[in-house]
Amino acid sequence: MNFRLFHAGHEGTYRDIGHQLQFVHINNSLSFAAVFYGTEGYNHSAYTCDEDYRCYEEVAVFVQIYGLENLAMIPGTVGGAPVQNIGAYGVSLSDFCRYVEVLDLVTGKVDRIMGRDCGFGYRTSVFRTPENQARYIITAVELAIPKDWKPETSYSALSSQNLETPEAIFDFVCSTRKIKLPDPKVLGNAGSFFRNPVVPKETLALIQKTYENVPHYPAESNPEMVKLAAGWLIDQAGCRGLNLGTAGTYRNQALVLVNYGGATPDDLVNAAKHVQSRVEDTFGVHLDPEVRIYGEKGECQL
In angstroms, rounded to a whole number, what is the distance separating the alpha carbons of residues 83 and 86? Predict the structure, then answer.
């Protein structure tokens, strides 16, 4: 059988799959299961795979284990979090991941893959590679969070505020996400559709000739590259609140592709291609989807 495993929180668009590709939703049906313990310099927290990640983060703040507040209200489950290497406002799961516990369907054994071996990158991991998509069932995740809390407020949305405590950061991130991101139960969406593009500094310099205040951030992997804000690029290309009939972009956050009602997978893909083309024509920058797109023969490109 040709199949793919997914936890809630995997972002995906599915195009006329038919019966050739089966999806298996991992749900361990456990009640909330969490373990907290401390070692020198670190707080450790371990959770079962299908716990709601939002609950995961809220409990950490409640028991005064700080460091995850920038990741507040990211939808999905703990099991889906390392696959995507979830991140927001300058913080990623990979900053804290000690290990991911998996059931290896090749060996039939339960194993622990240490964080350093998870191949974490910007919105990716070893669990997203083609050879591993149907190999591992994630059963638990453990984080190691430094006890010496330091605020991460380098992103402009945070640095412009007076956020001096983890609770203040948590509350601000929650309120911001409620305003900018639509509830998928009300308006169909898969969250941020495109990755923030990483480009050479020369590309940034060219854009700054026309747009002096283009938001940009260091690219962690290469000092000669910078990360641009995809949402800003889409907005400036005139695509915020785009409505192509049944599909378009959200009025409060251009980065979010939405289903206005009755959209087919091809409608959503065509809307994404429209945005992609407008940004490339305006800035000469290519946007890659963060959402994974599946067709009849498996994962495919936009």
Answer: 8
- Report how far residue 260's alpha carbon sits from residue 258's, in angstroms, rounded to the nearest whole number: 6
The continuous run of DSSP H or E covering 38 comes out as strand 34-39
In what helix (H) or strand (E) does residue 142 lie, and over which residues does it extend?
A: strand 136-146
Helices (H) and strands (E) in the chain, counts: 7, 18
Residue spans of beta strands (DSSP E) within 165-264: 188-192, 198-200, 216-218, 225-228, 247-249, 256-259
Q: How far apart are the first and last CA of the chain?
A: 25
pLDDT, tens only, 182-207: 988 899 998 899 999 999 999 999 99
- The answer for 126, left when phi > 0, alpha when psi is -120 to 50, beta otherwise, is alpha
Distance CA 288, CA 185 (A): 26
Give residue-wise pLDDT tens across range 142-184.
999 999 999 999 888 899 999 999 999 999 999 999 998 998 8
> What six digits make up the tokens of 203?
């590309």
**CA 79, 24, 9, 291 torsion-angle sign:** positive
Query: What is the Cα 148 distance to its own chain's centre?
Result: 26
Radius of gyration from C-alpha coordinates of the chain: 19
Residues designated catalytic? 123, 192, 290
In this structure, are residues 71 and 86 in contact, taking their beta carbons and an 8 Å threshold?
A: yes
- Of the CA atoms within 13 Å of residue 88, those in its CB half-sphere come to 21
Q: Of 133, 136, 77, whose CA–CA distance to 105 is shortest? A: 136
Q: Is the whole-model pTM more than 0.85?
A: no
DSSP category for residue 77 = B
